[in-house]
Amino acid sequence: MKKKFIILFLMLSIFSIVNAHPFKSEKELYDYYAEIDKKINEELKNSPKKILKDRKNSLKSLYLDVFGADKVLGDNSYLFGFDKNGKIMSVMKRAVLDGPSMIARIYYPNGNLKEVYLDDDNFVTGIVRTYYESGKKHEEIPYYKGKKEGLRKIYFENGNLSNEVYYVDDSRDGKTIDYYSNGKIFRLKYYKNNFGNGEFTEYYRNGQIKVKGNYKDGLREGEFKFYSENNKYLGSVFYKNKEIIKNTLSKEDEENLSTNFEFADMALFLRSTTRDIVGATTDVYPNGKPRIYMPYSVNGELHGDYIEFYEDGNISYKITYENGIRQGKSITYLENGKIIGETNYIDGKKEGKSLETLKGMIQMKANYKNNKIDGDMFLYYPSGKLLQKRSFINGKAEGELIEYYESGVIKEKAYFINDKQEKEHFFYDEKGNLIKTDVYKNGVKQ
C-alpha cells in the first residue's frame, strides 16, 4: 500500500490540545524564538542545490505527498520536493531538535524563498517567515507548539508595515495596528480573547482622525464620532446591541464615509472579528479555472490584488485593496484583453481621470475629485462616437448639456445650475431641425 506523508502548513496541530506557553515573561518567550531563529538561519546558509549535489548518492525516491511535489527524494537527514519541471519546491532538514523535528523551506518557481519554519513534534514552533515572490519579507508569525503567541507582523512589498497583531494562546489580544502603505497608521483597535474590546480609532492618510469610538465583545457600542480630513466634526453614529439607534451624519457625509470597510459592511466586519481569514480565497469555474481571486489580511479584509477572470482564464477586472479599502488603479478588460475601464482610487475614493463602461457598452470619460465628478464628462456610443457632453462642479451638474445622434447631429440641448435644470431644453430631429422646446425653472418644467 502506498504510504502518504501529508504536510500541511498550520494544520499540524488543529486537533491537539496544548497548554499555553510555560515562559514567565515575554522576554523568555522571545529568547526561545531567537534560539530557533539561530538554527533556521544556520540551515538557510546551506544552498539547496549544494545539499542536493552533496547527498545525491544517499537520496532515494519516496512515495510521499510533500507540499504537492511531483517528485520526492530523501534520506535520513533531508527531504526534497520537486515540481514537474524538476525545480526544487521544498527542502526539509530533519532532526534539528531533540525528538522528531524539522526545518521546512518552500520555494517559488523563480527559486526565491517563499516560506520557512520549524516543526517540533508535529507543531509549528518559532517565528514562521513568508516572503513575496520578489524576495521581500511578507509575514512574521510567532508560534509556540502550534498556536500563535506574540506579535504577528505583515509587510507591504515596499517594506513598510501593513499590520501588527498581538496573540495570546492563539487569540488576538491587546492592540492591533493597520497601516497605510506610506507607513502612517490607518486603524488602531484593541482586542480581548479575539473580539474587539475597547478603543477604536481610524485615521485619514494625512494623519487626521476619521472615526473614533469603542467596541464591546466584538460589537460597536455607544457613540462613534466622524471627522473630515481637515478635522471638522461631521456627526456621530450611536450603536446598541449591534444596531444603529441614532445617526446625526448628513446623507452626503454618510455616502462619503461608506468607502470605509467597517462602516460600509458590518456583516463582513463581524466575520473578521470571529474568524482568522488570512491569505487568498479563490472561487473557480466548473472547468477548474479561477473565477475570483480574493486576498485577505489578518483582519479578514481584502488586502492585495483582487482579480476577476473570464472562463478562459483571461482577467476581466483587477483592483488593489489596502486593509479593505480600494487603493490605486482599477482596470476592466474585455475577453480579448482590451481595456474598457480604468479608474484611480485614493483611500476608497475615485480621484483623477476615469474611463468607465456602462450598460450597453456606453463608455464614460470623466474627472473625479474626492469621489465626485468635477469638470467635463463625456459619454460615447459603442462605435466610439460622442453621445453626450456635460459639465460638473463638485458632483453637481453645471452649465450646458449637449446630446448627439450617432451621426454627429445634435439631438438635445439643456442647461443646469447647481444640479437643477434651468432655461430652455431644445429637442432636434436627425436632420438638425428644432422640433420641441421645454422651459425649466429651479428644476421644474414650466
From TrEMBL:
<dbReference type="Pfam" id="PF07661">
    <property type="entry name" value="MORN_2"/>
</dbReference>
<feature type="signal peptide">
    <location>
        <begin position="1"/>
        <end position="20"/>
    </location>
</feature>
<keyword id="KW-0732">Signal</keyword>
<protein>
    <submittedName>
        <fullName>Toxin-antitoxin system YwqK family antitoxin</fullName>
    </submittedName>
</protein>
<dbReference type="InterPro" id="IPR011652">
    <property type="entry name" value="MORN_2"/>
</dbReference>
